[in-house]
Amino acid sequence: MTPSAFDPRSVTAYSLRTPLRTVCCGYTPRRPALRRLSLLTALTLVIAASLATTQSTAAQTAPRTSQDGVYTAAQATRGGSLYSENCAACHGGMLEGDPNAPALSGAAFAAKWAGKPLSELHDVMRSTMPQNFPGGLSRQQNADLLAYLLQRNRMPAGQAELPAQTEALGAIRFAAPAAAAGATAQTPAAAPARPASPTAAALAPVDGGFYTVEQADRGKLQFDKVCTPCHVAAGQMPRPGPSGRGFWLGSQHLLLSLGGTYTHKYPSVYHLFRRIRDSMPSSDADSVSEAAKVDIVAYLLREGGFAPGRTALPLNTTAMKKMRLGGLAVVEKGFEPVFNGKDFSGLGFLLGPNCRPQPEGCGRTEPGNIFRAENGSIVTTGKVQGYMYTQKKYQNFTLRFDVRHVPPADWDPTEDFFDGNSGYLLFVTEHRVWPKGIEIQGNHMTMLSPIGMDAMAKYTEDHEALVRARKPAGQWQSVEIVSKDGQVKSYLNGVLVSTVTEHEFKAPGYIGFQSEGAELHWRNIRIRPE
Known about the structure:
This protein is α+β, with helices and mostly antiparallel strands and about 525 residues long. Helix content is about 30%, strand content about 20%. The chain has helices at about 20-25, 30-60, 75-85, 90, 105-115, 120-130, 140-150, 165-170, 200, 215-225, 270-280, 290-305, 315-320, 465-470, and strands at about 65, 170-175, 230, 240, 245-250, 250-255, 335, 345-350, 370-375, 375-380, 385-390, 395-405, 425-430, 435-440, 450-455, 455-460, 475-485, 485-490, 495-505, 510-515, 520-530. Residues about 1-5, about 10-30, about 180-205, about 235-245 and about 325-330 have low confidence and may be disordered.
C-alpha cells in the first residue's frame, strides 16, 4: 500500500487500542501470550521495588539493642576510670557487688534490665549514684559509665559513642548475651587496664595503699590552710605552740601532733575520717568540705607511714570501713598483736568434736574452710566444733579484741533473742575438743559468763550490767579479759560483767577462740603479758 493509495476507511479494520506504529509502520501486533508475559514482568518489578522499600523502612524503624555496637571502646575506657573512682567501692572492682550493693554484671543484672530501654538504666544511675553524691555526675559521664557496663557485660563495641540524651537512649533496648543468663561477665581481652579499685585496696588491711601521692599533696595544702592553727603533722607528743598558734590547756599553750603514730590508733580509715569530719576545724566543722577532709585524711595517712596506692581515697564511708589501719593494738603500751590482720601466723587450730590433734587423734590442725582471714578480721563459720589458739602461753595478761556475731538470714531481730555460741578458753595446756581450762562464754545471750571446764572456778556475774552493756546481735562489741593474781575479770564494752574470784590454774596456758555453731568475726586482737 502506497501513501497515495491510502484509504482512511481501512483503519476501521484495527482496534482503536492498537498502537499507531502498528497501523502506520507495518508493525505486526504481538501475540496475546507475549503481552501477558510483559505485564507479569512489569508487575513483578513493581512488587520487588515495593518489598525493597518496605524492608528498608522496617530496617530503619526496627529498635536497636545493646548488641548492635552502640558505644565505642574509647568511651568504655573513660567509663572504666569513672567507675573506679565513683562506683567500685560499693559495687566491687569486678562489678561483683557485695551484701550492701548489687552486682552490675552477670545473670541477675541481665535479667533485671532485659528488654528495657537504656534510658531507664541511665536515669537510675544519674539520679541515685554515686551514693555519696547522687546526681554528681553529668549526663555524658553517666553515658560513659553505661558504656563501660555494657562492655563488662560482653556487649560489642561499635563506631559511634553511646548518646547521653534520654530520647536517643530510649530507642536502644538492653539485650544481654545468652551466656549471661548463667555466668558473670568477664573482662574483654581488649579492655584497657585501669587503676585498682578502693575495694581491691581494702584487701590489704595494714599495708595501706588507700590514697594516691597526688591526693596526699592536695591534703597537705588543705592541712596547712585549715589545721595548722592548732596542729602539726610531725612528731609524737603535744609541744608548746608559738605565739598565735595552738590551743590553751589551763596555762599551757599547745600544738597537737596528728603525725607519727596518731593515725594508727584508729581501727579503720572511716574512724579517722569521722573524727575529722565531725569535729574539725574546731572553729566551724562545716566550714571545710568533706571532699577536702578526705584529702587531709590521705595526707595524715602518709605522715603516719601508710604507703600510697594507685587509687584515690573515695568519699565513701562504706569503703573506708573496709580499710583497716590496725586499731588500738599498735599504740597501746605493752600490747602485741595476736592476729596480724593478714594471715594466721602465730596461731594454731584444732577442729573436730571429741578429738585430739592428728596424728594421735581425729582432730584437724588446719583452719580449712572454718576459719578465714578477711578484711583485717578473722571469721569463723562455726560449722565444725573446735578452736583457734595462740601458740604462746599466758597466765597473767590483758586480752582485748572486737567481736561481732552474725545472725542467720531468717533471724527475726524483733525477738531480741540470739544465742549464737562461741567462747574463750583460758589456761589450756593439753589440746582436745573440749580441753580442761576456764571458758569465758562467747554466747551472745550469756556473754562473758565464766565456766570451769573440768576445773574448779568460783565466780560472780552481773547480769544487769551485761544487759546494759550488750549491743544487738550483728554489731561490733569490745571485749577485755584480764587475768591477774589468780582472778579473771571480763569487760564488755568497758563494763565489768563477771569475775572469776578463784581458780586452780597456776601455770601459763594457751588461749583459744571457739568455733561452735555460729558465725563470728574478730578483729584488733591484741594481748599484753603481765
